[in-house]
Write the structure tokens for this entry.
Amino acid sequence: MENAVASADGSVRVRRHWSEHGLVFVAPFLLMYALFLLWPLISGLGMSVRSENITGAGAEFVGLDNYAEALGDPDVWASLWNTLWFTVLSTVPLVLAGLVLALLAHQLRCVQWLWRLSWFAPFLLPSGVVGLLFMWVIFPSDFGFADQALAAVGLHPGIGWLTDERYAMLSIVLTTVWWTVGFNFLLYLAALQAVPQHLYEAAELDGAGAWQRLRHLTLPLLRRTTGVVVVLQVLASLKIFDQIYIMTGGGPDESTRPILQYVYEAGFAGYRIGYASAVSYLFFALILIVSLVQLRLSRRNREESAR
């Protein structure tokens, strides 16, 4: 439906009915977005300033007491440190391995589809399958695949991969790298396929070798993709929960317990929903700060590259 309206300068403006602007089509999404994201966000914020328990009865307004308690809770800081340490240990190999695998797959001339499928397939597995696979096949002491590999090269097996504080976090990182590197691999492979082939041909005619083409052509062209991969990987690693909860339960001696597991334990095992909400919002603030910093750094790098 259109209505013609004369403006002050004599021109005619066309006023379209709101349904013709696509609002009818996006209304279901907006409804689901408000119902399953905005409302829980607002509701959780309200819980964080009350002494809310899991039954929902007898809750009282406590203001910022839950936040003050969380900031002074050593368990919060210990679990936050575990989360940050896992993020550091996992982000670097996941980014580098994804890049290397993409470079190899892009150069292969034989059965490319098989290589791409084999490197991406683990990412499609559920976290429960991956956790149980590594618990009962890879990391069992003495008879697991990891110990058998050590014995094959003459090293002493019997390492407590998931029961020793020195190796538990590293074992979870190795599991995560094997499981999720396929996503970064796919992003890098798509970026490599988008690079114009004539650039490599021109560089080769100018006498550039394979290493020079990689260093001065491929890697600079992948800089923006690397920024996206790093941002997504850091955010994903900060939200670690599934594999740690399945494989170690946060142990041994809470040395691998992430912040999200502490939120779960405080809310559903300790029945303190209000306090758990406060901890989760503090963690949300940390993720938001990290995202803004990375966004700022990426924007600065793009501006410098444009110059």
Summary: The chain has a mean pLDDT of 85. The chain is about 70% helix and 5% strand. The first helix runs from residue 23 to 47. The longest strand covers residues 2-6.
